[in-house]
Specification:
90 residues; single chain
Length: 90
């Protein structure tokens, strides 16, 4: 393709004669681009990677085990809640 033939086509779009049509298009593309970037950052910050782990979520028993291991609940609370979970799964 001859590069010299490309420039008259671009001039036909009003890009060099002060036409404002392309400004509107570029502005819309820029707004959409930055909106996508910002939404992507928010999605990642809110835990967007969780779905990439195979879509597996913690079971109630795993959550209880983790909370007990981290010291958030006492041994008595752990046993009581473990019993409730075991009874509810039957």
């Amino acid at each position: 393709m001859n590069l010299a033939l490309t420039f008259p086509i671009a001039d036909g779009w009003g890009m060099h004669d002060g036409g404002g049509g392309w400004w509107i298009g570029m502005m819309l593309v820029m707004v959409l681009f930055w909106a996508a970037v910002i939404l992507g950052i928010v999605w990642l910050a809110r835990g967007g990677f969780d779905g990439w782990r195979g879509g597996r979520r913690e079971t109630p028993t795993e959550i209880l085990d983790r909370r007990f291991a981290e010291g958030e609940i006492s041994a008595e609370d752990y046993r009581e809640r473990r019993q409730v979970i075991a009874n509810s799964s039957r």
